[in-house]
Amino acid sequence: MAPCMCSKISPADSLVLGAVQIMIGIFHVFMWYFLLILYMGQIRGVFGTYEPITYKTGCSLWGIIFIIAGVSIIRATRHPTQGMITCALTTNIFCIIIAIIASVLTTIELSSFNSVSYRNYGQAKLGREVSRVLLISYPLEFSIALTYSIFGCIDLFRNTVPEIKNSPEGMKKRFVLKEDKHQQTS
């Protein structure tokens, strides 16, 4: 059986993934603040105000967790201990779950639109456009967190499991040891 050619992710790539996660998280927090200002400014009309499920749950505020995951990736890259890698892996798995939940909630929000009074219609339309933009960013966050999680698992596996004897490095070490034993007996 051929050895696995998957290597661990390079430190530069890990730093980039962490930085992109932090930027996505900051973007989500700013969008939450924008939606907060937008929806708080609604005037109670005949049909009420528009408060979608993503606004009520603070879905875009969950970007704080994306920021924490990005910071943990950068810390695990700079100080690669087993505990730091496990922490980064855990936060990224949490990010995957959050990105899926946020995508589902945003899709539910965008699939139904109860009419609102004409006073709030413009704010509701703008809020829905923000939700569409956020819906595009959730798969990006999902893919970044999944990529790091996969390579983080590979890195943890390689650090905790003893070296596989059939790997090329293991075969070289056994060959060198056999030569050393042979030379010592001569």
UniProtKB/TrEMBL annotation:
InterPro entries named in the record: CD20-like, MS4A
Pfam families: CD20
The UniProt record lists the keyword tRNA processing: no
Source taxon at top rank: Eukaryota
Biological processes annotated in GO: cell surface receptor signaling pathway
Protein keywords: Membrane, Transmembrane, Transmembrane helix
Localisation: Membrane
Gene Ontology CC: plasma membrane
Protein topology in the membrane: Multi-pass membrane protein
Chain segments annotated as transmembrane: 15-41, 53-74, 86-108
Predominant location category: membrane
Coiled-coil intervals, chain numbering: none
Protein name in UniProt: Membrane-spanning 4-domains subfamily A member 13-like isoform X1
